[in-house]
Give the backbone structure.
Amino acid sequence: MAVCGPPRRRRPVFANATGSARPRPPGPAPSYPPAMPAPRPPGRIDLTPPRLVAAPDPVEGPAESMADLVVRAGAAVLAERRRRTGAHGLGVTGFAVLDVLQRCGGLAQRELAARVRVAPTSLTPVVDALEAAGLVARRGDPADRRVWLVALTDAGRDRWRAARPDGRGPWLREPPDGLDAAVRDYLVAVIVDLEQDRSDAT
């Protein structure tokens, strides 16, 4: 006996691995292709390498060459000066600029670079930073309008005065009595000889 009403929908048939027909399992129809999950934003990864600080090597005294001792002494003094001037918001070169300007007055940047013993291009960002901090000022040279002079400001002089004990190195151990002049003469002679050799090579 026929039953009135809407026709019954047949369940779709799928082929299994053997090729025989099998009904689709009940549940929501799968989407094809399957929806890929949205990628999760990666977390913040710190790629900064760990800072490794080597333990100081013991000083072997007579076993080390004089050149090695001079290099190690210079590196130790530079590191200590960098630490001390940094406490005043200055780098080693920044303090040297203030120190030279305090002693010599306003200088053209090229002459200032020669007295600080750095390349003029290396000095430019240092002077820019000091000027931005209000410690130095650039002004025209009255004798030559093409030249700009770098001079200390009052704030720069105050900063130099506060940093001078740390920047000039009275904390450095002095040679024994009677040897100060000899050590100084030796170091000056080494510097003059090496700088002269380098100048001749260029």
About this structure: The first helix runs from residue 66 to 86. The radius of gyration is 37 Å. The chain has six helices and five strands. Residues 65-170 form a domain with the Arc Repressor Mutant, subunit A fold (CATH 1.10.10.10).
